[in-house]
Amino acid sequence: MVSVIVMKYKILEILKEADGFVSGEELSKKLGISRNAVWKNICTLRKDGCAIASFAGKGYKLDFAPDVLNPHNLEKSVPGRVYYFKSVKSTNTEAKNTENVPDGSVFIAESQTGGRGRLGRKWASPGGRGIWMSIYLTPEIPAADVSLLTLTAGLAVCRVIKKSQIKWPNDVLINGKKVCGILTEMSAEIDRTAKVIVGMGINVNNEFFSIDLIDKATSLYLETGEKHSREKLAAEILKEFFALYADFKERGFSAIATEYKRKCVTLGREVVVIKNGGEIRAVAEDITPFGELVVKTENGFLTVNSGEVSVRGLLGYN
Ligand code: ADP
What we know:
Layout: H1 2-17, H2 24-31, H3 35-47, E1 51-55, E2 59-64, H4 71-74, E3 82-88, H5 91-97, E4 105-112, E5 130-137, H6 147-160, E6 164-167, E7 171-174, E8 177-187, E9 195-203, H7 220-224, H8 230-251, H9 257-263, E10 270-275, E11 278-287, E12 293-297, E13 300-304, E14 310-313
Parallel strand pairs: 3-4
Antiparallel strand pairs: 1-2, 4-5, 5-9, 6-7, 7-8, 8-9, 10-11, 10-14, 11-12, 12-13
Bound molecules: adenosine-5'-diphosphate.
């Protein structure tokens, strides 16, 4: 089954790279499959929305390919496997519930019907517009360090998305609006290595947001006026993430601290810490080696843990 899926994407890649027609014979030779199998895969690609012209004696020519993610290509950027879905409730949930997943695998979907933020909040994940993915890790690090992976993921996204900044702990912003959110979840079972799932939602080609998100959400398209390849971006972000993650495993937070703090828009700002329904006004001062935010309040310094609070700028979202 897997090889059939991969074959379809391989054919698509060859057709994308070709200038004109590619003969059935050439495809069958290159891929080591029969011409009948080539034809079957062409039919599947057409069902997926690709417009492929075919002429006797000439072969096949790709006229249009919808912006769908190609898991076969993404696999080149990850140490594990890529689990691809057209639609899924939540890639984090899917990753959590799947057995025998190799470390460093990625769950990615065209759309999520129940995308989640922190504290049970919803994450809007419309089909084909963004990158909705979860990285599955089995790191041998203390539980207290797991939230640092959120910071690592934020930095990876920030490195790839130009003019973006990080809002501690888990958002990436452009011009003060959220272009990406990160949700890290962990499940530790007795006698099993802890699974850590780092979910990322990145708004790429969204043309609009619902009324409740208009003031705080943005997409790369809305910021640049240009549509972006989700696949290319996802690949770049994954490459950055796994490079940073390797560094982080070796040297801990110090591997990313300086760059993270430089890109963190929260530091030095007046913030409101929303905790247990109450609000505390403070100034964000620093980030601890455990990834907590140190804020200065009227009553002295307070260390804020990422799981339990939201931080808002005094003047708005960031
Ligand atoms: P917050 O950043 O508000 O502390 P989360 O990090 O948990 O909370 O993110 C969830 C929140 O993000 C939602 O309550 C909603 O306001 C906002 N949101 C939901 N979907 C999107 C999206 N696609 N882009 C940007 N923001 C979103």
